[in-house]
Write a structure and sequence with these properties.
single chain, 301 residues, 4-stranded antiparallel β-sheet, two-stranded antiparallel ribbon, 11 helices, 6 strands, 41% helix, elongated
Length: 301
């Protein structure tokens, strides 16, 4: 996500106000997980409903900053009458030249970190909920920079999509034009470490049937030296039968190389016995005897 001047300014100011890297990262992770809803933006105030992965009770973080006075707004609008930023603001843009006091009549468009107040009903400030709200507003300003002017109390101009939502999570997934999501590796690792327990397994029992695995049409013959299609199908059938037995009867899945090799030698057609014997460290005669011993005896019809 590329940040414009106003999104970058907001991020820098709030980063300095929070001044805690662990909270900053936790807020980013909560936001990426969909933990922020009802983002509301008014002159001098931003609020939202936030949840994190460790608590079910929602919190309500709020960030306040001073809105410009009527006198400041008048001076701001009268400054640099020939500059093109006046027309740009009327069309929903916020040019970078407005960071220069000469273009705003000496009125500071950007607040100072000391003018920003952080509060949250979770009982701690700053907290991860405020950090999540900060990241959400950064993403909002990256798309709609004129919201920065709204925060400072400047008159509204052509409408934009509202900054309030009904139960839709606010996220900052970083995407490329191709649609692939990119998350920094250290963020993903930190999110993984915060997950104390794995997700619960489903409580229902799947319905299993004893029907044979249907034939799977192969789109094309695998390239050499891959197994033949019949061997691939036999391997799939063997894996399916083991999975079925595990799910139905809780049969343990053992990873014993010797036993697996013998079982597959009886199930997979055309398997190369010399290679199997070499891998197991036995001669072919012993391998044949062991295969014969574990081959089920078929009764007469």
């Amino acid at each position: 996500m590329t940040l414009n001047t106003w999104a970058r300014t907001w991020e820098t100011l709030l980063h300095a106000a929070i001044s805690d890297e662990a909270l900053w990262l936790a807020g980013h992770n909560d936001l990426s997980a969909g933990g922020l809803t009802h983002l509301t933006l008014f002159p001098g105030r931003i609020s939202a409903t936030a949840t994190d992965r460790h608590h079910t009770t929602p919190a309500h973080p709020t960030i306040t900053l001073p809105a410009l006075t009527d006198h400041q707004i008048t001076a701001w609008q009268a400054a640099s009458p020939t500059c093109g930023h006046h027309q740009a603001v009327r069309t929903g843009k916020l040019p970078e030249c407005l960071t220069n006091p000469d273009h705003t009549g000496g009125v500071p468009t950007q607040p100072t970190p000391e003018e920003i107040t952080l509060s949250c009903d979770c009982g701690t400030s700053p907290c991860r909920h405020i950090a999540a709200l900060t990241h959400a507003v950064t993403a909002r300003l990256a798309t709609y920079p004129t919201d920065f002017a709204t925060l400072r109390g400047l008159p509204e101009h052509p409408t934009q999509p509202p900054a309030t939502g009904k139960d839709q999570p606010v996220t900052t997934n970083r995407t490329t034009p191709g649609g692939k999501i990119h998350i920094p590796a250290h963020h993903a690792w930190a999110w993984y470490r915060e997950c104390a327990e794995p997700p619960l397994l489903p409580t229902y029992t799947p319905e299993l049937i004893d029907e044979p695995v249907p034939g799977l049409p192969a789109p094309a013959a695998p390239p050499a030296p891959a197994p033949d299609p019949e061997q691939v199908h036999a391997l799939i059938s063997d894996a399916a039968s083991q999975a079925r037995a595990h799910l139905r009867n809780a049969t343990r899945l053992e990873c014993a190389q010797h036993e697996d090799a013998l079982r597959l030698a009886t199930a997979v057609p055309g398997i190369r016995l010399p290679e199997t014997a070499e891998r197991l460290g036995i001669d072919i005669a012993d391998l044949r005897e062991q295969i014969l011993a574990c081959t089920p005896t078929r009764g007469g019809a």
